[in-house]
Amino acid sequence: MTTMRCSPPFERLAFERKVNDALRSAERILDIERHPRLAGDVEHTYGSKYELVNATTNAALIAYMNVFEKMGLDSSVLRSIDKTKPTTLRFDANTTSKFVKEVIVDVPMERSVEEEQKTRSTGVFGHSESKRVSKVVHHVTEFHFNLETSWSLSVYSGTSVQDKKVIESRKSSTVLITQSKDNALPEHNNFPPQDLTLTWLLQQINTDRLTSQFKVDTEDDDTKTPRRNKATEKAIEFSRHLSQWSNAIKSIFVHGIVENLLKKHNPALPNPGDLSLDRLNTIHEEYSIFNPILPVMEERITSEETLSENINESIENQSNSIIALEFRSNENREDVETVLSTSDLSKLINEHVRTLEEAITGIAKSCPDEKHCISFSELGLLLLSHHIGTELCTNYIESMTYVESMIETQLVSAIGKRLTPDDLETFMRFHNARLLSPEPKPFSHAIRQPEHYPVGLLSIESVNNDDKDNCIYSHSRIVNAGASFHIPLNAATSLELGGNQVLHGWLQYRFGSSHKMHQLVARARQFSSFILVIGTMTGPSTLEPKDAVIVQNKASINIICLDEVFIPLLVSELPTAKEFKDAVKSLSPEQQRFARSYRSMQLASSVFGMCVIQIKPQLESLLRLPPGALDKEMRLTQDLMELFVEYQVPSDLLSYNGVTENVANADKVHNVRQNVQAVIDVINSEKEKQLKAAKLKTEMAAEDAFQRAFQDDEEGGSSSFSRQALFSGKGAPASVSNRHNERALACAGMNMVGRSMAKAMAAPPPSPQMAMMMELPAYQMESAEGEPIFRYAKAETSIADITTITSTSKTTEKYTTTNQQAGSSLLQSSVDFTLVPKILDAAVERIAKYTSLRSTVLKTSDSWVRNRQENLLTALKKQTLNPEDVKKEKNKAFDLLDALSRSGSLPIKYSELHVMIAATHCFEKDVIDTIVCDNVNPIEKIELSTILFASTVHGVAARELIKNTDELHRLEGSTPLLLQQEGH
Prior knowledge:
By secondary structure, the protein is α+β, with helices and mostly antiparallel strands. Among the domains are: 15-90 and 188-262 and 277-413, no CATH class; 424-623 and 826-980, no CATH class. The chain has a 17-stranded mixed sheet that branches. The two termini are 38 Å apart.
């Protein structure tokens, strides 16, 4: 299950450690009696969270402005900015490379050469000797380029880039030495300008008094929480853009200029005084700058006298920053008393200014001179960019996330766990049971006749990750009492069914992108069976079938098979009424009419129907037996099912054929049993004849193959065994005989069927009289599984005759059914199922148009699962039914329905129609984030949808569904429009 989180991943423990480290420094700054702590560790009100966000954001804005001041954006520039237009801070940078000269440099080598010199002299000493040591040098050609670097920070209003005001700039040049003239930098390299919009920041500053005035508007309808509101969202968005802008400046200097320069710079004699890249990347580690952005509170009780002193204190005179904090109002004393005072916050900001200036001074003392392309100005700009982008902006964004995380932690602590959709669903079941009458019930219905034991169970269950199956809960109402409905099997046959018609309303909840899996489950009990037809209601009393299955146990002498069918349900949601109305608002009249027509069709086709048909009582009606006659006739019922499903035997051959009805029930059953046995005897006799013929032909084919093999062996000089087998009439050894028989079967294109067939093939060669039977005609028969085996073409009595009778009977009955239906009229129903979704859609648009209640379409999957227990001593085995298997099951069910209804001429009385109207209440986030981030109580939202949905299903006014007056009075205050509506 996946859900959408409203906040990015947040390392809460790492953030708390970072803030606690900063608080140790803050203790030296504040008065000795001050002991600020993380807000989550201080008891406070919900309003204090808004005050905390205001204080933290104002501290962040002032810290940003302190850095901008060091970049050149001072108070004079601020006052000169036209605030009626958007203001942009731009950073530009470019480099220019120009060839200067070519120089040959002698680079000393490690080797040296000694030379001896002898000098002749005419003096007393005769001659002298001297030695000279010469160093070996390498002549290297260097190419000198002049690299000029230029950058600037400027401010401009609107689109007047040409009128920009430069607040800081520098041009520098340095010598780039390469050993290849083609390996120099590009002659001109203009880096893309980096723009930062300052409009929002300047709107939070009073440029006349130079004070920060950020405040969350708690009266705004879009304000959900201290973190989720327009003001805070814009502050976070600006901080993200500021972080990206500062990182881009750092990247241009470090990677675009210096790193590229160092890669190209290759003098023959290295200069140890050159600037290294490591210094640029670690310049921020050399200085510790205090971060004043801290989500902290303090436990204290402020007296009226102290509070008045804080108000009258002149903070502007004490502030060393370019922007001062504005005084907070003391209207809600309980909310502000735990937040740091303006005086304490100003002390923290002053410490930020002090450490910032200390770092800038330190860089000025240790940086290279102005002749290098990286000097004091560049190192200072790199330090400021890293501090504002990586430290200040990141800390502010994490502080806002911490406020939201604090709310979540407190909520989870109050509840004792992190809620999931399953937890909320469990609560709503408990809540609805106390609130509504009638309350929602589990969708689990026993299939039974009055005063009879159930033959099966039909339910819709949700599949959880722990493989537990839980029934869904639905609002239910029996409708259209005494009315019949129809199921068309094909173009010529339509079934008329009677029984209960039940309207169900299923309200689901979806949080984020999480989706539950649901399945329709049909279970048959021992010695029981029924038919399940699934489809869509296409009219007031018509179920258009899509799938059908016979759920049964197959009982015989040695085996009892139990069926359990799982049909996965596919859920798709339609747009809400408000979403649809907003989407078609700007369309043309023709397009709107098309969209409305198609949506009407979507709503009408979202009515999911399930029809359960009991087989045994319909068999009694079909066979002219009294009700209950087959209750204890398990074998007879199974035989009837097999004849109808496997052989399509017409019911006229099996039904009671007595002249008078005034006979005992046992006699009628006995008569039907005799008819069934007669047909079974014909089938078994035909099977026996065809099996004997199959055995005979197999033996003849084997003998013929054996004789051919014998002749081949004799011609090839085989042993005396072949001649003895031929003339003595005795069979060959079993292994040899079997081998020849298998070869013969392969030549004939047949397979051995069963162990008895193999023994017959290994028997001695047939007598000469059997050769006469080689002229028998070809035959073919079908097994009980439908596989082709053998059957006589000229059989006197066969299944083909019975099939012909069935076909003739069906054709006659189809015409009869069509004529009967043509002269009859449909019973007018009191509830049109296809109109219920439209009524719900209209009610949602009228009463709860901001509720995310979506009509939901239910469909069955193409692949099913069936659990079958082969006998009472074995466990259930899972079997997957692919689309082809599902289609076969549908055809079997339709064949049986056709037989049970005499092709639609006999009404089916014992059936139930369950019509499901589904809707989904959707939340964009998971349960906790819906409460924490959106400040929404999902219980109240779902409660409104539930009452509205139940009112539509039950067809009564909403107030009539409320159990007690206390709940009614509560709802009258929260949802008065809903309770004023009349029932449908």
